[in-house]
Amino acid sequence: MSNLTQQTILSVHHWTNTLFSFTCTRDLGFRFESGQFTMIGLEVNNKLLLRAYSLASANYEENLEFLSVKVQDGPFTSRLQHLKIGDKVYIGKKPTGTLVVDNLLPGKTLWLLSTGTGLAPFLSIIKDWEIYDRYDKIVLTHTCRFVNELAYKEYITLHLPMHEHIGEIIREKLIYFPTVTREPFQNRGRITELMETGRLFTLLGIAPFSSENNRIMLCGSPNMLRDARKLLNGLGFLEGSNSVPGHYVVEKAFVG
Ligand SMILES: Cc1cc2nc3c(=O)[nH]c(=O)nc-3n(C[C@H](O)[C@H](O)[C@H](O)COP(=O)(O)OP(=O)(O)OC[C@H]3O[C@@H](n4cnc5c(N)ncnc54)[C@H](O)[C@@H]3O)c2cc1C
């Protein structure tokens, strides 16, 4: 357990019967870059069960925040979803991941395309004022099946623009585009279809993707990642990594 610290649950919020978020204390020595993930551990029958989780909190915040699925009969989340204030969790000391701005070449607009819990790393990024310095605009898209799965919608649209330190830059630079696929809503459809048909750009009034100006981060389901990669590669975008920066970077929201 030397790679883990024990932390205490401070709050739990259930969004739906398949989605919840929680905050916990943060070890003083725990540093991470916006967009990274770490391991969360739970002790089950004297054994440690570990899963990868994106950090949803900003890297300057006092506590850590995570957004989690509830998988029915999932070995980890069938337990994690019952967390209560005061319970203990283990947090990995070594955050990592590809969704970091240094893995992207310089550009004008940063697109953060997410489905489901793939929103989590982008919550960290949209609160990081240093990232706004690098781009003219940041566009965050979040696609879910149902409207009530658009976690943090009110936070992003109502609270963040009023934030005492970053509210002004959020109002000036952040564009949020939620879409749902399975019920009526102001924006409907899979993000890859909206990209392919060009409707995304028409609706937002923004020029279509070009590898010259646009940088993209993707975090979502295996299907979304497969289709988006195909589309971007077809437009001449190059995938970046921790060793070579590119036009776009990808992280799985889960292993399908
Ligand atoms: C890099 C990385 C970052 C991750 N970040 C997060 C995160 O921030 N939040 C989070 O909830 N999960 C995240 N995951 C997934 C997480 O590690 C576990 O899979 C999840 O906690 C479920 O664990 P489980 O043991 O209950 O079910 P598992 O046995 O791990 O999964 C069972 C099945 O449930 C489905 N599933 C698992 N996770 C998800 C999900 N997030 N959304 C939709 N379906 C899913 C898949 O079909 C999977 O095969 C991440 C995974 C990776 C690889």
Would you give an account of this structure?
This protein has 256 residues and is α/β, with parallel strands linked by helices. It has 8 helices and 11 strands. The strands form 2 sheets. A 6-stranded antiparallel β-sheet has the order 4-3-6-1-2-5. The protein has a 5-stranded parallel β-sheet with strand order 9-8-7-10-11, with helices on both faces. Flavin-adenine dinucleotide binds next to strand 4, strand 5, helix 1 and strand 11.
Evaluate the radius of gyration: 18 Å
Helix-strand pattern = EEEEEHEEHHEHHEHHEHE
Ligands in the model, by name, code or SMILES, are: flavin-adenine dinucleotide
| Gross morphology | globular
Helix count from the secondary structure assignment: 8
What is the spatial order of strands in the main beta sheet? 4-3-6-1-2-5
Beta percentage is 25-35%
Average pLDDT for all residues: 97
Distance separating the two termini: 27 Å
Poorly predicted residue ranges = none
Count the beta strands: 11
Structural class: alpha/beta
Largest sheet: 6 strands, antiparallel
Helix content: 10-25%
